[in-house]
Structures are given as structure tokens and as C-alpha cells.
Write a structure and sequence with these properties.
This protein is mainly beta. The chain is built from 1 helix and 9 strands, in the order H-E-E-E-E-E-E-E-E-E. Bound molecules: calcium ion.
């Protein structure tokens, strides 16, 4: 029994820096600004801390797009910074329309954020222990 104690402590310490499951979904934008080339072709890049969770599809010519993608990350921790970047796909250089950042907490939350170049992004995230 005594010999298994170090292993047990190791396991408990591993749980102590509990890695949690982050899910980001239900992303919808409204009133995205148009540029010289026409109506915005929006997509979203999702990050948690330094990790990239993925990129949505481009919604062409749509100022009010929504995205059906869900992004999961299994190494999230409370207070990590969730970052969503809304971009407009263009032929040469994509434009960054705005960035939404917040520290994540346990639970499920829906947020709306105002993009620097106009429009809003709404999204939902949930953070739960495994
Ligand atoms: Ca465009």
C-alpha cells in the first residue's frame, strides 16, 4: 500500500492542474461591414491561450453569417484566454474585422462582442471538467 502512495500523489497532482474541456459553438455575426469588393465573406478563427482550435468555413457575401462548427479543446484551464478573430476573406489580403477575448470560467456562457470594424459576434462557450 505504502509503495503505491507516490503514484497516487502523482495522479492527484495531475488532477490538480485540472485540464478541462472547452467547447465553442453557436457563432453568429450581425452587420459585418462591407468593403470595396462587396459584402463581407466572414470566417472565424478560434484560439485558447496559445493553441489554435480551428477556423470556420467562409460564409460568402453574407453580412449576417452563422457558423455551424463546434470547436473542442481538452487542455483548457479556467482563466485561459479564449480568443475569437473575425476575418473577411478577400482575394489578396484578408481583413481582420475584430477580436473577442475573455477569460474562461466553468459553466456555459453566451457572449456578444462588438467588432472594431463594425458588427457584432455572438458565441457560446462551455467549460467543464472531464
Ligand atoms: Ca471580402
Amino acid at each position: 500500500m505504502a509503495s503505491s502512495l507516490p503514484l497516487l500523489l502523482l495522479v492527484l497532482c495531475g488532477l490538480g492542474v485540472a485540464q478541462s474541456r472547452l467547447k465553442v459553438y453557436n457563432m453568429r455575426a450581425t452587420c459585418l461591414p462591407s468593403d470595396l469588393l462587396g459584402i463581407t465573406d466572414g470566417y472565424v478563427k478560434v484560439f485558447c491561450g496559445s493553441a489554435s482550435l480551428g477556423t470556420t468555413a467562409v460564409r460568402k457575401d453574407n453580412a449576417n453569417p452563422w457558423w455551424e462548427e463546434e470547436f473542442s479543446y481538452f487542455k483548457a484551464q479556467q482563466n485561459d484566454v479564449l480568443r475569437l478573430e473575425v476575418h473577411d476573406s478577400d482575394i489578396f489580403f484578408d481583413d481582420l474585422l475584430g477580436v473577442c477575448q475573455r477569460q474562461i470560467k466553468y459553466g456555459t456562457y453566451e457572449h456578444e462582442c462588438y467588432l472594431e470594424k463594425g458588427g457584432t459576434l455572438r458565441y457560446t462557450y462551455s467549460l467543464s471538467s472531464h
